[in-house]
């Protein structure tokens, strides 16, 4: 498996750093796309950078962190083949993988503290997509993406 991508804005920086170090200590290769400080910045740039790499198939999974998680979710889900899931607890993180084959975990630093974020990230990385009836629904999402791309031309 290639590296896991991670990115945040200034509001998610501290949580990103804690989570990145934790994952690396567990032997997970992490590619950090920034930001690299608490200096104010614009989350759409970081969310787009990570989501683009997922969309193009350069990486399989990524984690985005901002204050609420909402902005990152909006940006990431604009790109084809990205299924970004804003999660606030372990159960939804697992379900996002099992039922939706999410490939981007989005966390809101104002709602998810470091201990929970670590547990959620590990659970999310270990949880497999169930397929079956859920595969049919993911394929429907892909068809909708194709329709949207045709409308844009």
How would the blueprint of this fold be written?
Layout (H helix, E strand, L loop, with lengths): L3 E5 L4 H13 L4 E3 L10 H13 L6 E5 L3 H7 L7 E3 L3 H9 L5 E5 L5 H13 L6 H20 L1
Parallel strand pairs: 1-2, 1-3, 3-5, 4-5
Explain this structure.
The chain has 153 residues and is an alpha/beta fold. The chain has a single domain, classed as Ribose 5-phosphate Isomerase B, Chain: A. The protein is built from six helices and five strands. Helix 2 packs parallel to helix 3 (70-76) and helix 4 runs parallel beside helix 5. The chain starts with a strand and ends with a helix. The relative contact order is 0.16.
Q: In the residues, how many domains can be counted?
A: 1
Structural class: alpha/beta
Q: What series of H and E elements makes up the topology?
A: EHEHEHEHEHH
Q: CA-to-CA gap between the ends?
A: 34 Å
Shape: globular
The helix fraction, in percent, is: 40-55%
**CATH topology category name:** Ribose 5-phosphate Isomerase B, Chain: A
Strand order of the largest sheet: 2-1-3-5-4
In brief, what are we looking at here?
The chain has 153 residues and is an alpha/beta fold.
Keywords:
globular; Ribose 5-phosphate Isomerase B, Chain: A; five-stranded parallel β-sheet; alpha/beta; 6 helices; 153 residues; single chain
């Amino acid at each position: 498996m290639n590296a896991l991508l991670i990115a945040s804005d200034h509001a998610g920086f501290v949580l990103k750093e804690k989570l990145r170090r934790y994952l690396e200590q567990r032997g997970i290769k992490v590619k950090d796309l920034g930001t690299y400080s608490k200096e104010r910045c614009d989350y759409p740039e970081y969310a787009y950078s990570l989501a683009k790499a997922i969309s193009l198939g350069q990486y399989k999974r990524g984690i985005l962190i901002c204050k609420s998680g909402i902005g990152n979710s909006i940006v990431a889900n604009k790109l084809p083949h990205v299924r970004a899931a804003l999660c606030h607890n372990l159960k939804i993180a697992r379900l996002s993988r099992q039922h939706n084959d999410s490939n981007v975990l989005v966390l809101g630093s104002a709602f998810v503290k470091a201990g929970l974020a670590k547990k959620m990230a590990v659970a999310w990385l270990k949880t497999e997509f169930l397929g079956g009836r859920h595969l049919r629904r993911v394929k429907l999402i892909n068809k909708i993406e194709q329709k949207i791309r045709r409308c844009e031309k």
